[in-house]
Amino acid sequence: MDEQRSTEARLSSGQQTLNGLWEEHLRQEFTTQDTAATLETMVPDAYVNHVPVLTGGVGQEQLREFYSRHFIPRMPPDTAIVPVSRTIGAERLVDEMIFRFTHTIEMDWMLPGIAPTGKRVECPLVVIVQFREGKLSNEHIYWDQASVLVQLGLLDAENLPVAGVETARKLADPSLPSNHLIERAKAGRRS
User: Fold this and answer.
1) By the 8 A CB rule, do 37 and 63 touch?
2) What percent of the chain shows pLDDT beyond 90?
3) What phi and psi, each to the nearest 5 degrees, are found at residue 57?
4) Using one digit for the tens of pLDDT, what is the confidence trace for 171-188?
């Protein structure tokens, strides 16, 4: 908590405003789970793009449908967001986090058409938020879908250059070993 206050004290008033707007947006999405209040934090022509699977929407009508049917009610009850870093500019904020959940419900915003597997997932996630006129203008959300699919048992990483939960663990602990996939590939060529 002291670190957060110290960081906020170093932000300009404009950066503090953007930080507050983003925190309010997240609160409405994940804590109150209120679609109307979430949309109040956004400009009328805002858009959301979950880049790996192209889910989201453009404008209040599409976003109301998306948030109320596909996003807010499709969040597993044990969802946790672990902050890693936040960078705030004049009109843009970049949030890096680890997104954790157990796949106990259908999550069509992230895993369209995939029935619940009951498996635990941890993945690095990056959100780039653009602001305009004192509200959110757009969100670009990125994550490694291959890592998610490996953790759910839907993609076999044995012969592919992809990793599973290790991606989140390495983000949380940079001292963990690097280059496992390179070494694995080299060992495979020697066989």
Assistant:
1) no
2) 89
3) 170, 170
4) 999 999 999 899 988 888
User: What is the mean pLDDT of the segment spanning 81-97?
Assistant: 97
* Nearest in space to 76 (alpha carbons), one of 107, 46, 52: 107
**Residue 191 pLDDT > 70, yes or no?**
no
Please tell me whether residue 72 adopts helix, strand or coil conformation: helix
- Fold of the domain spanning 2-190: Nuclear Transport Factor 2; Chain: A, (3.10.450)
Distance CA 145, CA 160 (A): 14
Of 36, 54, 29, nearest to 109 by C-alpha is 54
DSSP 127-170: EEEEEETTEEEEEEEEE-HHHHHHHTTSS--TTSS--STHHHHH
Identify whether the C-beta of residue 119 lies closer than 8 Å to the C-beta of residue 148.
no
